[in-house]
Amino acid sequence: MRRARPRASGCGVGAGLVGDASPANLGYPRSAMHDDIEQLRARLQQILPGGELDQLCLPRTPDIRLLLLRGDYPRGELDPEAVQRVMDNPLYWVFCWASGQVLAAYLLTHPQRVAGRRVLDFGCGSGVVAIAAALAGAREVIACDIDPLALAATRVNAALNGVSLTLADDFHAVEGPLDLIIVADVLYDRANFEWLGRFVERAPEVLVADSRVKDFDFPPYRQIARQASCTLPDLDESAEFRDVRIYCSGRDPHPG
Question: What is the mean pLDDT of residues 132-147?
Answer without folding.
Answer: 98
